[in-house]
Write a structure and sequence with these properties.
The structure is a homodimer of 222-residue chains.
Chain A lengths: L14 H16 L6 H8 L5 H6 L2 H28 L8 H17 L3 H14 L5 H23 L5 H27 L10 H24 L1
Chain A binds a DNA duplex (30 and 30 nucleotides) through helix 3.
DNA sequence: GACAGAATCAAACAGGTGTTTAGAATGGAT
DNA sequence: ATCCATTCTAAACACCTGTTTGATTCTGTC
């Protein structure tokens, strides 16, 4: 019912930003429904009514968080691939592309603070959507897929559109699984097995995927 | 508005079983926290107190559901691989193994009723655990992984334990992603793209993974 | 200093949660 | 017909939820 009090509020001491940060952390950790407005406000050192005053409700706060983060993450993932494509000199190899995407995908996870939170948020949202159903596909999944798919086709001539799309599927599937597993395993208190370490797995996914793509391309040619 | 004698269908259809069925469906659809005991009981045509009487609480009902299903699913996934291994005649090829596991993994999803519910339940539990943290690893993930890992090594001599474990990771990651995506896409109302159809994707995953595994095994030999 | 608007606060609101209770049916076995 | 354990029922319990309210403090402008 009220207008946005301050649209930008750069300084980190605004209550509005403290609420956003606290909510982001809690939503990622416990999920939307499981996080109460009281938790958020006390965590941010604010009053219970602060969420409704600044955002007009719990749902809007949630939406605001995604709006703030999605664009940045998408750009981060596609930019490396695009950069490779338009780079001067020789055309990037298949391994170049897969490697660039893999590190771009996994990089936000290496720092344990911010990246993990975002991934967790996204995973939760995909399983229990509280956002408009199409928003995720249009703003995140489709652009990233498109970008990687085109890059693969430029490096592997003869790869059809459908084949490229499925290979993208395979790569992303592996990467998402790596993320989920690392989260689950550490949470379950199991000491991480060295053969499934994040960096080791990144190398593996690259080699595995390059082999897989070549197999797909090769068998279709015959 | 309660006891309807024509509601019964099965011999073992005491309210206890009706509660289990209703809860399983609702937990899968909306998640544990988001499903209320009142919903479960009214869906099962029972009194609100029935859950606490028969199971001693909402949590125990949830645990009971998994206890009932997990063993069966695990057996279903490992048995096909084991059968291949101990089959008379020539040793199964790499493609045989990956193919058998893929279809065993995806099969419960082809029938749209029961299998989907179970997958949904598991996906939710992995993201927001309400069960003892280790139960899932010990009763489901580890045995399946072990079984597939050994099978791969028997078909691809020279594949180390660590490499096999990572390849299993890659395969399962792809399959889980196929499942999630199919769920998300149909839920979002998008008409399924034919190149990402379940059967087509199954074939793709097999070829992609065989190529990937061979690449891993080949590069390690050099 | 005076004033307006933004920001914060404690308290209460209406509604939903899982669980407990005491009492009433039910179905066999004696 | 009596008894007893099992099963079911309606009502209440204590607690937590997101949101609203009306008053109070803070902040910047004239």
């Amino acid at each position: 019912m009220t207008f946005d009090p301050q649209e930008r509020a750069e300084p980190g001491d605004g209550t509005r930003n403290k609420l956003l940060d606290a909510a982001e952390r809690l939503f990622a950790e416990k999920g939307f429904e499981q996080t109460s407005v009281r938790e958020i406000t006390t965590e941010a050192g604010a009053n219970i009514a602060a969420v409704n005053y600044h955002f007009g409700g719990k749902d809007n706060l949630y939406r605001e968080i995604f709006h703030r983060r999605l664009a940045h993450l998408r750009e981060q993932r596609t930019s490396k691939i695009e950069a490779l494509q338009h780079e001067g000199g020789s055309r990037p190899t298949l391994e170049d592309i897969v490697s660039a995407f893999t590190s771009a995908f996994l990089e936000p996870l290496m720092d344990h603070s911010e990246g993990r939170i975002l991934i967790e948020l996204i995973a939760r949202e995909m399983l229990s959507p509280h956002l408009p159903r199409t928003m995720f596909f249009e703003e995140m999944i489709d652009p990233v897929r498109e970008s990687l798919s085109r890059a693969l086709q430029s490096a592997v001539p003869g790869l059809t559109d459908a084949e490229a799309a499925r290979c993208v599927h395979s790569i992303i599937g592996q990467l998402v699984h790596v993320i989920h597993h690392s989260r689950l395993a550490t949470e379950a208190g199991r000491q991480p097995r060295e053969e499934l370490d994040l960096h080791v797995m990144a190398d593996h996914v690259i080699r595995f995927s390059v082999g897989g793509i070549q197999a797909i391309a090769g068998s279709s040619k015959v």
